Amino acid sequence: MKGRAIVLGSAIAAAFAFSIWLNKPDLDLEPLAPATLESPNLEQIKAGEYLVQIGNCVACHTDQGGAAFAGGRAVPTPFGEVYSSNLTSDDETGLGRWTNQDFYRAMRHGRSKDDRWLSPAFPYTSYTNLKREDSDAMFAWLQTLPPIKRVQTPDTLRFPYGTQLATRAWRALYFKPATTADIAAMDRGRYLVEGLGHCAACHTSRGALGGSRTGANYMGGEIGNLGWDALPLVPSKPMTDSEANELGQLLKTGINTHKAVAGPMSEVVFHSLQHLNDADLAAIVATLRALPPADAPPAARVPQVSPEQRQSLRARGKVVYAEHCADCHGDAGEGRANIYPALAGNANVNAVSATNALNLTLNGGFPPSTAGNPFPYGMPPFSQSLSRPDVAAVLTYIRSEWGNDAPAVSVVEVERR
Amino acid sequence: MNPMRRRNRLTRWLAVPALLLTLLALPAGAAEPAELMGKRLAACAACHGDEGRTVGEDYYPSIAGKPAGYLYNQLLSFREGRRQHTIMAGLLANLSDAYLGEIALYYAARPHASQPQMTGATPEQLALGERLTVLGDLERKIPPCQACHGEQLTGVVPMIPGLRGLPARYLDAQVGAWKNGVRHAREPDCMGKIARALKPEEITAVSAWLASQPYAVDAKPLDSLPNTMPMDCGVLP
Q1: Cα B112 to Cα A224, A359, B174, distances in angstroms
Q2: Which residue in chain A has the smallest CA separation from B40?
Q3: B91 touches chain A (CB under 8 A)
């Protein structure tokens, strides 16, 4: 009886302490400069438009077919769906009544105007590195958007992930706000990669609770519940100058001599990276080139394929490849510069997980239309014309030919799609 | 004038500049050589056939020779979710309006080809389909298909598609999608109204009759309709 009272008492005390901790003011956060109320000048607004593009805000904050920046797009996470918010100047449902201080607090500290702890689906873990003047410029430009009324769609996160308590706890585990000194110490490339560009949101894998895996920086991995894998950004070997130039071309135009972007990265180039100015592009490339090696995410579990099965898949795959793939990708998987990506040495092809290769083979895809590549060549979807066993065969062949070295793809894996 | 109709008028006038921009954007495309466009669009050929012709295909529609404005509007609709098809939306997601205009012009300029389809429909079904297509059902405010899609059902440039040479299953699925609210056109959505007025068996009958009709190789969309259209359609200026 006494024991029970102690347990109950401690539970109440813990809950009390918890609620204080949950609601305490931002004691651990740096105070932010107050709002500036004078109207921004044209230069600031122009700068803000560029920064909003580089942050790719439009991609998440626009629903399919909906008004730009009015929010409503579902962001799938392993815990349920989070719906993006309305960034237009509407008073009731958008940012119409916000100040630039409110906006900076959301970016830097992940806290909304009404003091709610924001869901980390909004990548404030990266935006915390943002400078005040840049945040103010972005806000100034967003305020020029015509007001669009769109009431926030409630998230569909499973209990308890959608609660403020869970978000608060998540922050304690995974979020360390940047200090002014941290921000001042960053060069332009790091500032764009680790801040506004929020590359880590996809390219650093996440642990079971959705926090960035420590020590796995920019090593790629599964992207939330998007059904795509992010490629590692850390170079596997030192990059030559010409490889660095090609990387710049890939980010700016979506295509280069050997590669084409695909899947979610196609969206990033389309909405965001194609607008990079030359200096920023060079700074990003320099930063990516210098990324320190990190631990690869835990290897995806790959269904086992026996050596005999692998042999027969490869034999059949060679025939399928010659008939359906070689016309564009070449007899030796060499591709065609700036048109069709090479498959020999291709990072999507060689990833341990066949997720991206399967997506592309079954559903096809276009690299993005960009100023540098306005009318890209598309990959046909093969989900109708190739049988499941033939897809497994051709991918097994491609993944083990021309120096490629990735596990075979079993028929079961294709059938599960 | 009732307020609904006034609002429809307003929406329509607001849509006009959008459409004009669309059509102005289109001719710029003629610069892209057809041969290169054909190679770029291998992804489309996988289902819609070489140069957009699907002869003997069970579901996927021929798109060759359809009016450019119509095709452009459909591409935008797939990209923006007014028409729902996962593969189409995925393919078009990161293509610019300018490229979609090029694609529309390319397919509009390809010669059409099709053959009448054996649909397995009964003579009664075909008779019902023909009656609705040619006469409509004026009591139920269902205009004949010919009133808008042209006497030979070849469509009208730039926005009204031809109806011949399409698989019955495709036609059935599209009108059904309109009826069920899955497919939308710009308001006032005239096809949506017609589809909702049709019974499912009537939709099947019309689809079967249309698919079973021959379509002359040299048939082209009309330049204009002889009479005013019986309904308000938001996609038209």
Answers
A1: 45, 32, 20
A2: A377
A3: yes
What total number of domains does chain B contain? 1
Say how far apart CA A54 and CA A286 lie, in whole Å: 17
Q: Region B78-97: what's the mean pLDDT?
A: 96
Asked whether residue B8 is assigned to any structural domain, the reply reads yes
- The average confidence (pLDDT) of chain A is 93
Asked whether the beta carbons of residue A378 and residue B43 sit closer than 8 angstroms, the reply is yes
Picking from A343, A356, A353, the residue whose alpha carbon sits closest to that of residue A407 is: A353
B12 has a pLDDT exceeding 90: no
Residue B80, chain A, CB below 8 Å: the answer is yes
Q: What does the alpha-carbon distance between residue B204 and residue B167 come to, in Å, rounded to a whole number?
A: 12
Q: Do A377 and B42 touch (CB under 8 A)?
A: yes
* Ordered structural domains, chain A, with CATH: 26-189 (no CATH), 307-415 (1.10.760.10)
Q: Is B57 on the interface with A (CB under 8 A)?
A: no
Q: Does some domain include residue B99?
A: yes
Single out the residue of B234, B89, B64 nearest to residue B161, CA to CA. B64
Amino acid at A241: D
ipTM > 0.90?
A: yes
Contact B234, B12 (CB under 8 A): yes
Across the strands, what pairs with A272?
none
CA distance A247 to A251: 6
Quick one: which of A170, A135, A176 has its CA closest to A29?
Answer: A176
The model's pLDDT over A149-208, given as tens digits with 9 standing for 90+, comes to 999 999 999 999 999 999 999 998 999 999 999 999 999 999 999 999 999 999 999 988
- Please judge whether A369 and B81 are an interchain contact, meaning their C-beta atoms are less than 8 angstroms apart: no
Omega of the bond leading into A34 within 30 degrees of 0 (cis): no
CA distance B127 to chain A (A): 34
Q: Can you list the positions of beta strands (E) in A4-122?
A: 74-77, 80-83
DSSP state of A154: P
Question: Over 50: is that where the pLDDT of A84 sits?
Answer: yes
Six-digit token string for A353: 């997980």
Distance of CA B165 to the CA centre of its chain: 12
Chain A, chain B: beta-carbon pairs less than 8 Å apart? 77
Helix, coil or strand: residue A125: helix
**Nearest chain B residue to A381, by CA:** B43
Which chain A residues are Cβ-neighbours of B45 within 8 angstroms?
Answer: 380
Paired strand residues for A365:
A379
In this structure, what CATH number is given to the domain that contains residue B48?
1.10.760.10
Residue A230 host element (H or E): strand A229-230
Reading the block at residue B193, the tokens are 């109204």
Residues from A contacting B (CB-CB < 8 Å) are 64-65, 266-267, 269-270, 328, 363-369, 374-385
Preferred mutation among B41, B85, B92, B94 to probe A, highest tally of A CBs within 10 A:
B94
Is A255 strand, coil or helix?
Answer: strand
List the single best residue of A323, A366, A382 to mutate versus B (max B Cβ within 10 A): A366
Give the pLDDT confidence score for residue A22 in this predicted structure.
65
> B232 in a domain, yes or no?
no
Q: Residue B147: inside a domain, yes or no?
A: yes
Structural domain for B155, as ranges = 3-211
Question: What digits encode the pLDDT tens for the residues A312-371?
Answer: 999 999 999 999 999 999 999 999 999 999 999 999 999 999 999 999 999 999 999 999
